């Protein structure tokens, strides 16, 4: 492993911010530390950077234990969420800052800055100051400044948090392409699951200071290992005692589950239903246009579930009575999340999309 943490813990007074965290990333991988506020993800990143010292455990970078090595000697580049650019310096001088502190010759600095401004698509803007740039441009300069000294590893702390939604989506694709081109091992912190799923090769899901699960975006989305991951990914609706739902009567007493939108089909009363003995009565409580579909909230037995209905189907209205088929859900079994199907269906197709 190129980046490896073994049983790392960190306390702040009586508060345990990180609890026996272990994970590894191969060289060239773009990894995401994903979790809600207070999950410990930023503390983990700061310990990798050397800005915090672990109370126990070991951190290895390229097989070298770095617990006692100062940040400036770890070969890292760090990008902060608020850019942290020097407002009195031009784009050129901001990018060149780390090289100047390393006493790199002037001609090599100019060559490196020219390479990086071309990489970030900002040729011709080298003489501008941060106040003359957009938020997306400032973040690109921050990336270039971190990359200038040729770090072994790039660390990014919520790099898109201060940028508006449209620019954030553009920067995601740009970052993904840049990391792939440079083949630099990178770790970024985010609380946005869509961001992590779109950008990262590997995701480490953190919660309450510990790692819940690590794997590829597809592995985590399709096979959440714990109830927290099942709840956190996929806009799930969590309900208790799901034995009341048609087709799930054999569930253990008091068991909870998470139901994702893609596990639900909604029919108006005129539409043919293939599995009539498996559907529930429902009532539409909300509708929201999402571009390629209608996000539909439907009340089933007192639970409000969310599903997506195709624009090609008959429009529904709030208050309308409908039929609802729940064909899969994630059941919580102590510390595990198990994918189970509706036992009234005779033929459920493999994969996430059922042909009904």
Question: What can you tell me about this protein's structure?
Answer:
With 356 residues, the chain is an alpha+beta fold. It folds into 2 domains: 222 residues, 3-Layer(aba) Sandwich (Rossmann fold), CATH 3.40.50.300; 111 residues, OB fold (Dihydrolipoamide Acetyltransferase, E2P). The chain is built from 8 helices and 19 strands. The strands form 4 sheets. It has a 6-stranded mixed sheet, sandwiched between helices. The protein has a 5-stranded antiparallel sheet with strand order 13-17-14-15-16, with no helix packed on it. The longest helix has 18 residues. The C terminus is likely disordered.
Question: Which properties best describe this structure?
Answer:
disordered C terminus, Rossmann fold, 8 helices, 6-stranded mixed sheet, 2 domains, globular, 356 residues
Distance between the termini: 44 Å
| Name of the CATH superfamily of the largest domain | P-loop containing nucleotide triphosphate hydrolases
Sequence of strands across the biggest β-sheet = 6-7-8-3-9-10
Largest sheet: 6 strands, mixed
What count of structural domains?
A: 2
| CA-based shape | globular
Annotated CATH topology of the largest domain: Rossmann fold
| CATH class type of the largest domain | Alpha Beta
Note the beta-strand portion. 25-35%
Which bin fits the share of residues in helices?
Answer: 10-25%
Number of strands: 19
* Pattern of helices and strands: EEEHEEEHHHEHEHEEHHEEEEEEEEE
């Amino acid at each position: 492993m190129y980046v490896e943490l073994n049983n790392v813990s960190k306390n702040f007074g009586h508060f345990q911010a990180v609890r026996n965290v272990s994970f590894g990333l191969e060289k060239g991988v773009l990894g995401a530390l994903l979790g809600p506020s207070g999950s410990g993800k930023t503390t983990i990143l700061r310990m990798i950077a050397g800005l915090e010292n672990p109370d126990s455990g070991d951190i290895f970078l390229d097989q070298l234990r770095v617990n006692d090595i100062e940040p400036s000697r770890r070969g890292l580049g760090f990008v902060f969420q608020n850019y942290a650019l020097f407002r009195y310096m031009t784009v050129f001088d901001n990018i060149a800052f780390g090289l100047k502190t390393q006493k790199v010759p002037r001609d090599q600095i100019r060559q490196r800055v020219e390479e990086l401004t071309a990489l970030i698509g900002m040729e011709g803007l080298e003489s501008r100051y941060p106040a003359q740039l957009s938020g997306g441009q400032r973040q690109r300069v921050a990336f270039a400044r971190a990359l200038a000294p040729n770090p072994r590893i790039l660390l990014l702390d919520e790099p898109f948090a201060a940028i508006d939604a449209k620019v954030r989506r553009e920067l995601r694709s740009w970052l993904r392409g840049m990391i792939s081109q440079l083949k630099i091992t990178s770790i970024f912190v985010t609380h946005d699951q869509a961001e992590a799923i779109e950008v990262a090769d590997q995701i480490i899901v953190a919660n309450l200071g510990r790692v819940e699960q690590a794997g590829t975006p597809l592995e985590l989305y399709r096979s959440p290992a714990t109830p927290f991951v099942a709840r956190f990914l996929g806009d799930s609706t969590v309900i208790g005692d799901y034995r009341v739902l048609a087709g799930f009567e054999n569930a253990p007493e008091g068991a909870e589950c998470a139901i994702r939108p893609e596990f639900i089909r909604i029919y108006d009363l005129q539409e043919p239903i293939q599995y009539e003995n498996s559907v529930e009565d429902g009532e539409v409580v909300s509708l929201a246009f999402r571009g390629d579909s209608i996000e539909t909230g439907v009340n089933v037995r007192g639970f409000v579930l969310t599903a997506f209905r195709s624009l090609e189907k008959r429009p529904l209205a709030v208050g309308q009575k409908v039929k609802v088929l729940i064909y899969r859900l994630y059941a919580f079994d102590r510390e595990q999340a198990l994918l189970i199907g509706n036992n009234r269906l005779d033929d459920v197709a493999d994969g996430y999309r059922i042909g009904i």
